[in-house]
Design a protein that fits this description.
Layout: E1 3-10, H1 12-16, H2 20-29, E2 33-40, H3 44-50, H4 60-67, E3 72-80, H5 82-90, H6 103-107, E4 116-118, H7 122-132
Antiparallel strand pairs: 1-3, 1-4, 2-3
This protein binds adenosine-5'-diphosphate (ADP) and magnesium ion.
Adenosine-5'-diphosphate is lined by residues 54, 59, 63, 93, 111-112, 114, 117, 120.
Amino acid sequence: MATERTFSIIKPDATRRNLTGKVNAVIEESGLRIVAQKRIHMTQAQAEAFYGVHAARPFFRDLVTFMISGPVVVQVLEGENAVARYRDVMGATNPANAEPGTIRKLFAESIEANSAHGSDSTENAATEISYFFAGTEIVG
Ligand code: ADP
Ligand code: MG
């Protein structure tokens, strides 16, 4: 299996509750490496563009409002099969359906305020990483 990179966001519900370190501990204990990381406050335009694929969904406006409600931590994670592995480490979108020990089961408040984002394909990972990071900011 190849070494991959995936894109992660620690969402505003988690930064608000001071959980950045606890989320990062779950990530690192899974074997994934945090090879880039910064705390930012997304603009509305950034959040709308990032979640543009969901623009037609009924929850889109609320999701954008939530994502700009406070700071987030954007990250690049690296490891074997990182895209699929981080999806497993995060758990299901709805924390009620997430496996024990996953970020969302441990920390999420709701299906919307679910503490973490992770790319769903290697193609989207590359797009999402380049949206927030310059190559020189990623240090494996
Ligand atoms: P995932 O983040 O697991 O890939 P999606 O891509 O389907 O999930 O949705 C993006 C984000 O939109 C979710 O992480 C969550 O914050 C929010 N979301 C998804 N479904 C709902 C819903 N039914 N109601 C409210 N918010 C939702
Ligand atoms: Mg998704």
